[in-house]
Amino acid sequence: MKIVVTGGLGFIGSHTVVELQNEGFEVVAIDNLSNSSESVLDGIFNITGKKPIFEKMDLRDKASVQNFFKKHNDVAGVIHFAASKAVGESVENPLLYYENNINALVYVLQELKNLPNANFIFSSSCTVYGQAEMMPITENASVQPAASPYGNTKQIGEEIIADVAKVTTINAILLRYFNPIGSHPSAEIGELPLGIPQNLVPFITQTAIGMREKLSVYGNDYPTTDGTAVRDYIHVVDLAKAHVIAMQRLLKKQNLEKVETFNLGTGTGSSVLEVITAFEKVSGQKLNYQIVGRREGDITAAYANTDKANNVLGWKAQSTLEESLESAWKWEQKIRS
Q1: N or C terminus: fewer CB in 10 A for the chain?
Q2: What are residue 53's DSSP bridge partners?
Q3: Residue 186 near residue 135 (C-beta atoms within 8 A)
Q4: Can you give the pTM of this predicted structure?
Q5: DSSP structure class, residue 71
Q6: In terms of C-beta density within 10 A (0-12 exposed, 13-18 middle, 19 or more buried), how is residue 203 classed?
Q7: Going by C-beta distance under 8 Å and a sequence separation of 6 or more, which residues neighbour residue 312?
Q8: Which DSSP category does 102 fall into?
Q9: β-bridge pairing 270-271 and 230-231
Q10: Nearest partner of 164 among 206, 75, 214, 102, judged by Cα
C-alpha cells in the first residue's frame, strides 16, 4: 500500500517514513526542503535498506498538488506533517504560518476528497489546548484560545478536517502530540534545525557541543516546582510508531468515528531545568545556561493523559526522558564530527 508522507524529510516525518517502510508500506515523501535536507534520504536508506519515492514540492502550489495526485492516484493514505512549527516564529510572522499551514492542508484535502476511500492522519499539537485548566490533559479538555498563531493553525486545521470528513469519504485521525525529542538509535536521522533552533533539546545539544555560547531558559517565575515551564517530552521514534498504528487502524476500518483524536505523550511533565539536569547526567557535559524573560506564546505547563492512546489505539511511549536525550546527544555528536 502506498502512503504519502508530507514533510517526509523533516524531523518527525523522516522517522515515520522509517517505521512505515519497516512495516512494508511503499512510501512517497513530499518535502520542500525549507527545514530539512535531501541527505535525510541516505539516512533512511541506511536504516531500512530502501529509499522512499521523493517528490520535492511546495504544497502551497495548488497546481503541483493537483499534478502529484494525478500521478499518484493509488494512494491508500496521507500522513500530513508539512507545516511551519515554531511558536516564537509564528508570533513574529503570523502570515507565513497561516499561508503555509492552512493553504497546504486545504489543497491536499481537495485532492483526497476525490479518492473513493481516503485515510488521513493529521499532525496536530497539544498547543490546541492553550493553557489547559487541568493536568494531565485529556482529549476531552476544552480547546482554549490559542496562545500563538502556530497553535491557532492547528486548531483551524482540526476544524477544517472535521468539516470536510462530514461530507466526503475521508476518514481521519488527529494526533495531538506533546514535545518530540531524540533521534533514531542508529543516529542515521535526527532533528536537523536550519539556523538557530526554536526548540529546547536541539538548543541544549548545540550548546553542549560548542555551537552556541549559552542556552536561554525563558522564565523562572512560572507557578511550577522550580519556576520553569513544564512539558511532556516524547521520543520521536515512539511518536513515529503511533502514526503507523493510526494509519493501520484506518486501513483496517477499525475507527469508531469519521474523525478520531488521540493525545501522544509520555504522561509525565518535566520542567526545563529538569531536562537540563537529565541531559547533563547522560552526556557528562555541564551546560552553560542563563535565565531570561518569558517568551511570548509560551504557556506554563502541558503534559498528556495518554489513557485513550494506550487503550483504544494500543500504543504506549516506551523511552524515558534520559534515553531520548541520550539519543539526541549521540545524533548531535555524529553530525558535528
Answers
A1: C
A2: 28
A3: no
A4: 0.97
A5: H
A6: buried
A7: 262
A8: I
A9: antiparallel
A10: 102
Cell numbers at residue 199, please?
Answer: 526548540
- Nearest-angstrom CA–CA distance, 112 and 78: 9
Q: Grid coordinates standing for 207?
A: 550548546
Q: Measure the CA–CA gap between 67 and 336, rounded to whole angstroms.
A: 39
Q: Is the pLDDT of residue 117 over 90?
A: no
CA distance 180 to 182: 7
Name 316's bridge partners: none
Active site residues: 150
- For 109, the grid coordinates are 484535502
Least confident of 143-147, 243-247, 267-271, 290-294: 143-147
Task: Report the C-alpha gap between 63 and 70 in whole angstroms.
Answer: 11
User: Which three cell numbers, joined as nine digits, stand for 176?
Assistant: 495531538
Q: Which of 25, 5, 24 is nearest to 15 (CA)?
A: 5
Sheet strands (E) in 89-167:
119-125
251 φ/ψ angles, rounded to the nearest 5 degrees: -65, -35
Nearest to 79 by CA among 297, 247, 278: 247
Say if residues 61 and 32 touch (Cβ distance below 8 Å): no
C-alpha cell at 228: 520553569
- Spatial strand order of the sheet with 75-80 comes to 53-56, 26-31, 2-6, 75-80, 119-125, 171-177, 259-264
pLDDT at 233: 98
Report the distance separating Cα 240 and Cα 296, nearest Å: 29
DSSP state of 137: B
Total residues belonging to the chain: 337
**Residue 99, burial from CB neighbour count under 10 angstroms (0-12, 13-18, 19+):** middle
Give CA angle at 39 (109, 16), nearest 5°: 45
Q: What is the C-alpha separation between 295 and 317, in angstroms, rounded?
A: 29
Residues 11, 8: Cα–Cα separation, whole Å: 8
